[in-house]
Amino acid sequence: MTTLAPPTDPPVEEDPPATRPAPTGLRPSQLAWRRFRRDRTGIAAACVVAVFVVAGLGAPLFAKLYGKDPYTTYGQNRPGLLNEFGFPIAPNGGMSGEFWLGLEPGLGRDVLTQLLYGIRTSLLISLAVVAVVTVLGVLVGVTAGYLGGGTDFVVGRVIDVMLSFPSTLFFIAFTPVVTSLLTEPGEQMSSVLRAGVIIAVLAAFGWASVARLLRGQVLSLRSREYVEAARVIGASPGRVVLRELLPNLVTPILVSASMAVPTYVTTEAALSYLGVGMVEPTPDWGRMLLKGAEVYKTDITYMCVPGISMLVFVVAFNLLGDSVRDALDPKSDR
Amino acid sequence: MTLRTGTTRATLVTLVLALGAAACSGGGGSSDGGGPGKGAAPKAQVRAVSIGTAAESKGPAKELPGAKPGGTATVLERADFNHLDPARVYVSHEQTAELLITRQLTTYRQEGDHTTLVGDLATDTGTSPDGGKTWTFTLKDGLKYEDGSPITAQDVKYGIERSFAKEITGGPTWIQEWLVGNTDFRSVYDGPYGGRELDAIKTPDARTVTFTLPAPRGDFPFAVAMHTSTPVPRAKDTKLEYDKRPFSSGPYKISGREIDKSMTMVRNEHWDPNTDAVRHAYPDQWKFEFGASNQQINERLIAANGNDRSAMTFRVAVGREVAQQVLTTPELKARTADAATPYTEYFEMNNRRLTNPKVRQALIAAFPKEQVRQILGGPAYGEFATTLMGPTVLGFESYDLAGVPPTGDVNKARQLLAEAGTPNPTITYAYSQTPMWEQVSVTIVQALQQAGFKVVPQPINDKSYYTEIGRMDNKYDLYWSGWGADWPSAATVLPAKFDGRKIMDDGSVYSLYGNPAMSTEMDRITSMSDVVAAGKEWSNLEKRIMADAPVVPFVYRRQLTLYGPGLGGVRVGFIGSTYPIDVWVK
């Protein structure tokens, strides 16, 4: 998103010619970076996202400094924190100098560390999904687009099927099946394995939209003259794809990946909300929201903490995605 | 019977003897709202049901102060009634709905905190000249079905006969088993659809029905208060279709029903209040709405907008999400019905896997009852239990063999484990996979681990929970279950839960506890004719069973439900659900 500069700011273009550096050739990435830096919304969004990423990935470190962890049931272990109904006694959901964002109703765990670890869980899962989806989508999309013909037809129909599948229903039905297939009765599924299942299930559908996007891009690039020229001079298909096509596909790939992260964060949260995501005791953003929706009448704070933080995160990440697209590909329509 | 998973779901039948001290009397719910003990549970009182006289069985029911007829009352339930065929109902809210549309040989009259077994269709609670082997009931005059035809003794007989049919399943089986003297009663008699009659029931005339049992059963008048004894005219028996629309013998009849969505009951003009000692039937109409979640129902009842002003619910309890709001707001607390129920909840231990009693005792010592109850809703959920039968059962005696605080005693548990020679046994804790039970598992795992147990939490699909833990070869060590008495006798609790001979797949002995000495003793007490003396014996036996530490007693369940400000006479009834029979629309 491009913001209008306030009228008091001197317009950049009207710098005195003397101070303007001699026009030198700038690489596209440098141009993009320059455009991005001028985009204040983008910068702000990037800062917010960075805070979330640092907070999430640095959760264990922070928890160490803060002196709490997301697993101990402080409210249950120590009398005076929760009342007989399991709600925090102190106002604002039990916020205090000791528990900065209060206590979880019922179990009495620390909300701040729960949130940070929850962000970490959601972020790691969604980043992993985006990585898998992007790699798969690029491979399939580029192959289909470049080879065309029968391959393109078959891949195209598969993508059609994947995209028309009711994926949310599938997640709900399929996750417990996979879970029971992978665990023996009498043993608990490790949280890493469960995260793996969620990543696999989400990625199983996610690649299709990336592949379709890339296929279209490749189809339009394939007939460009420089590609034709490379073919004519006898470049191998591998070289054409890697050297000629891929560099021109970086923009759509980056844009789709940056837009996909917040989508998968919310999808992962939705899965937990629906009861097929991460299970206790692994802290999870979506499950916090679920609990919040249940106790909001008595303890609104507990709903606000995960709710507002997720809202801020998703908005910031979407704005960042927009800015990245504007910077990389200013001509594209939005 | 079995309690379903999920706090507020459920429950197969029962009778409560205890009555809540507070808002369950018929005074329109204007009880001591906002008193000092804001979350205090009603004290369960042990009170024998007295057997009423013929005079007490006479209608009409005593007028309630302030009550007036007319209006439409609404009932909100989470799910539609699975069964309404009187021979098939065994879940408390279904039995509660039956109160409006069917009548039985006997029933319970509650006035204030006193409960009496009285004749319903019968003029009294039955007579037995030979100490319980033969029971004779005489029907009242003027009993009519919804089409005006008379209710006959033959219809009562036919109603019981059809409960033997193999397609009519799900209801209680006491009468059937007693009549043929065999727990596999269908092998002796397979119902009236093949043209056979049951000779154990005789109907010498249209108003007399006589039951002849192979063995004396002093409890028979209680057993015929269950819906098995509902009269069904042969001509109106639609077999499986009867489940959708039973033929009414009660004060209302079903006028419209959309399965899973709604149901309407209107007056049965042929019901004569002068024949009925318990049902008031003040509202002209009952409207049922199904499909909202428990939380939505509670929030609607709190808001009480529009038609919800005169709404109630048979069994949607005030859940953990609104418990504090309801119990600390005087206006809301004033419109709750509140009483102890006959249900006791346990965390069952698999006695075939945890064979060392010291280990089981250690588990009892370490178990964090208070922390778990806090997650389930705190005091609104129930009182901590230390015994196997609940305080509503005749002969109940409070005792505490473990002697640990409700928060658990880690040191005592450690010591017991050391004595057992296994300081770190591995325990598989199975739970129904819902957010609430998942949170409970966090607490249980933590507490048991502190005591030295190694705990493997094992979630089970909510729908198949009872099937899974009901397997004789299940691989779990600890799992929740609940049980309530069908009538206030331990004979419907201890043999059902702790008789090793009844261990089978999908049975009710989830702890797989078996001790031949105890089983023999159960047989002896069951055959006693003096119910009060038997109650004492049951209590002694219970302590002996508890010495074996077969289960972790958890709580005696409490029923706390909200109702709209436009209703009066709402109270928790005998089976642990909220009753409609005294309700009027203000």
Automatic annotation (TrEMBL), chain A:
<feature type="transmembrane region" description="Helical">
    <location>
        <begin position="195"/>
        <end position="214"/>
    </location>
</feature>
<feature type="transmembrane region" description="Helical">
    <location>
        <begin position="161"/>
        <end position="183"/>
    </location>
</feature>
<keyword id="KW-1003">Cell membrane</keyword>
<feature type="domain" description="ABC transmembrane type-1">
    <location>
        <begin position="119"/>
        <end position="321"/>
    </location>
</feature>
<keyword id="KW-0813">Transport</keyword>
<dbReference type="GO" id="GO:0055085">
    <property type="term" value="P:transmembrane transport"/>
</dbReference>
<feature type="transmembrane region" description="Helical">
    <location>
        <begin position="300"/>
        <end position="320"/>
    </location>
</feature>
<dbReference type="InterPro" id="IPR000515">
    <property type="entry name" value="MetI-like"/>
</dbReference>
<feature type="transmembrane region" description="Helical">
    <location>
        <begin position="43"/>
        <end position="63"/>
    </location>
</feature>
<feature type="transmembrane region" description="Helical">
    <location>
        <begin position="123"/>
        <end position="149"/>
    </location>
</feature>
<dbReference type="GO" id="GO:0005886">
    <property type="term" value="C:plasma membrane"/>
</dbReference>
<protein>
    <submittedName>
        <fullName>ABC transporter permease</fullName>
    </submittedName>
</protein>
<keyword id="KW-1133">Transmembrane helix</keyword>
<dbReference type="InterPro" id="IPR050366">
    <property type="entry name" value="BP-dependent_transpt_permease"/>
</dbReference>
<dbReference type="Pfam" id="PF12911">
    <property type="entry name" value="OppC_N"/>
</dbReference>
<comment type="similarity">
    <text>Belongs to the binding-protein-dependent transport system permease family.</text>
</comment>
<feature type="region of interest" description="Disordered">
    <location>
        <begin position="1"/>
        <end position="26"/>
    </location>
</feature>
<dbReference type="InterPro" id="IPR035906">
    <property type="entry name" value="MetI-like_sf"/>
</dbReference>
<keyword id="KW-0812">Transmembrane</keyword>
<dbReference type="Pfam" id="PF00528">
    <property type="entry name" value="BPD_transp_1"/>
</dbReference>
<dbReference type="InterPro" id="IPR025966">
    <property type="entry name" value="OppC_N"/>
</dbReference>
<keyword id="KW-0472">Membrane</keyword>
UniProtKB/TrEMBL annotation, chain B:
<feature type="domain" description="Solute-binding protein family 5">
    <location>
        <begin position="117"/>
        <end position="500"/>
    </location>
</feature>
<keyword id="KW-0732">Signal</keyword>
<feature type="signal peptide">
    <location>
        <begin position="1"/>
        <end position="25"/>
    </location>
</feature>
<dbReference type="GO" id="GO:0043190">
    <property type="term" value="C:ATP-binding cassette (ABC) transporter complex"/>
</dbReference>
<dbReference type="GO" id="GO:0015833">
    <property type="term" value="P:peptide transport"/>
</dbReference>
<dbReference type="GO" id="GO:1904680">
    <property type="term" value="F:peptide transmembrane transporter activity"/>
</dbReference>
<dbReference type="InterPro" id="IPR000914">
    <property type="entry name" value="SBP_5_dom"/>
</dbReference>
<dbReference type="GO" id="GO:0042597">
    <property type="term" value="C:periplasmic space"/>
</dbReference>
<protein>
    <submittedName>
        <fullName>ABC transporter</fullName>
    </submittedName>
</protein>
<dbReference type="Pfam" id="PF00496">
    <property type="entry name" value="SBP_bac_5"/>
</dbReference>
<dbReference type="InterPro" id="IPR039424">
    <property type="entry name" value="SBP_5"/>
</dbReference>
<dbReference type="InterPro" id="IPR030678">
    <property type="entry name" value="Peptide/Ni-bd"/>
</dbReference>
